[in-house]
Amino acid sequence: MEIFLIKTLQFFMAISLLVLLHEMGHFFFAKLFGVRVNRFYLFFNPKFHLASTYDTWVRRLFKMKPEVVPTKDVTVIDEDGKSNTVKEKEYVGTEYGLGWLPLGGYCAIDGMIDETNQKLSEETHPWEFRVKPIWQRLLIMVGGVLVNFLLALFIYSMVLYNWGETYVPVSQMTNGMEFNEQARRLGFQDGDILLGTEDGMFRKFDVDVLRTISEPHDVIVMRNGVETTIHQTEDLSLLDMLKSDPPFVRPCIPAVIDSVQPGTPAEKAGLRKGDVMLGINGRDVHSFGQLTDQLAAIGDRISEMPADSLAIRRVTLVYERDGQRDTIAATLTADLKLGFSPVYPYKSITVEYGFLESLPAGTVYGWDVLASYVNDLKYVFTADGAKSIGGFGTIGSLFPDSWDWHRFWLMTALLSIILAFMNILPIPALDGGHVLFLLYEMVTGRKPSDQFMVRAEYIGFGFVIILMVLANINDILRWLGYM
Fold first, then answer.
1. CA 220 centroid distance within chain
2. Which of 271, 301, 378, 396 shows its CA 20 to 30 Å from the CA of 256?
3. Coil, strand, or helix at residue 366?
4. Are 177 and 142 in contact (CB under 8 A)?
């Protein structure tokens, strides 16, 4: 429960910050060009009975009405038939508030057809969005996306400035790497060290390595001390590579015990620091990865014969201690763990950045993240890709189990880039839809009719809601074990 609360708090902190700053981007350009903003809300505030009760309850705490000021003289007739001259009053400021539905936010701009469904009168006013030049309207519409993208670059820069960049250089993984059957068919061999391609050398082992290998490349590896080129001519699915079990490639980590957790099967069996695992249930293992593969195979057997799970979890282990081989028995935990950590043989390096150095480095980092994200969107249109789409649960699960500001800010920056890109898609009801119609107006010299804009907003908003529902259904199905 504690982990759930920590993840949830981080998720809402990140989303609230990003939505608030996104809407402030629209707000800033609207005010800059003299456009009136009627309401500025974090989260949505659709009206029904319970929502109205909430609205009344929080009005004093979270809602700020703009000042009411007199605007002009009007004549009114009272109940006795007498005429009186009074000052007509109008809200000329912005109403700020906190909505009850945490699915986004909105900035209600006067004279604009958007998700707030305001009705436009035939009479226009100089403070309305619709009367402003196209270039000003474009800046107002891209303001949110611009803020989110620049915010991501700034966060990445400050992360590099504060924490630096820590990683293990691929070239230092001297124990080599292990490859699955698909990789071996392409020409890779266990023990190879991935160095790079004709386009450049790999710096660190991460998803970008797989992304590069998934495309046709001449991959350079170190094999038995000699640089060897593997001609990879196939287009591979990055999604399949990430989901494959055993993994397409992983660093080879010796099966040497570094520490044993108290009360675990490893401790009960007598294993201790420095022991070298050599086999399990009669099968040799030469690395920690191969040991985990055998444990996964045991899990497959249990899924086929759940009634015999306890018997299947009883395993025979072969290990070496001080040059002597020995055999012991152990019973795995319900989640098929032995309870020890291996020795990690590679030393990481940390690249530190000064403030001025961090700005271009963070910009390059953020741009690479955006390019990778856009490149991977092609998988969304496949059957497996559609199943991989996640909603709030998936996003929340990406945050760390414990409070870690470094990972929190990296995740916030990634979400900021995703929010910027998704909002600029040419879908009505999103910023990109408005930009599309403004570009149409710029090219043709004609505005789409208000009726068309209203219908487009409904269609676009419906499409976004459907996507959101499907993504969260995927989360529920994964939680129930159906995906």
1. 31
2. 301
3. helix
4. no
Residue 217's φ and ψ, nearest 5 degrees, are -150, 155
Instruction: Give the Cα separation of 405 and 10 in Å (integer).
Output: 10
Give whole-number Cα distances, 41 to 62, 103, 393, 416, in Å.
10, 11, 24, 19
d(CA 394, CA 373): 16
Measured from the Cβ of residue 477, the count of other Cβ atoms closer than 10 Å reads: 12
**Cα(178)–Cα(175) distance, integer angstroms:** 10
For CA atoms 7, 13, 18, 23, the dihedral sign is positive
Give dist(CA 172, CA 252) in Å, integer: 12
Interatomic CA distance for residues 436 and 53, integer angstroms: 38
Query: What is this structure's pTM?
Result: 0.81
3-state percent helix, strand, coil for the chain, nearest multiple of 5: 50, 20, 30
Helix (H) or strand (E) holding 259: strand 257-260
DSSP character string of 86-143: EEEEEE-S-EEEE-SEEEEEEEEETT--STT-PPPPSS--TTSGGGS-HHHHHHHHHH
- CA end-to-end distance (rounded Å), the chain: 23
Could you list the pLDDT tens digit for every one of the 483 residues in the chain?
Answer: 678 888 888 988 999 899 999 999 999 999 999 898 888 888 776 664 444 444 554 554 455 555 555 555 555 555 566 666 655 555 557 778 777 767 678 888 888 877 655 566 677 788 888 889 999 999 999 999 999 999 999 999 999 999 999 999 998 899 999 999 999 999 999 999 999 999 899 999 999 999 999 988 899 999 999 999 999 888 888 888 988 888 999 999 999 999 999 999 999 999 999 999 999 999 999 999 999 999 999 988 898 888 888 889 999 999 999 989 999 999 999 888 999 999 998 989 999 999 999 999 999 999 999 998 888 887 777 766 667 777 778 888 888 888 889 999 999 999 999 999 999 999 888 899 999 999 999 999 888 888 888 888 888 888 888 888 888 888 788 777 766
Is residue 418 within 8 Å of 125, Cβ to Cβ? no
Q: How many CA atoms lie within 13 A of 469 on its CB side?
A: 6
Structure tokens at 327: 């055999």
Q: Which residues contact 89 (CB under 8 A, 6 or more apart)?
A: 68, 69, 70, 71
DSSP class of residue 326 equals E
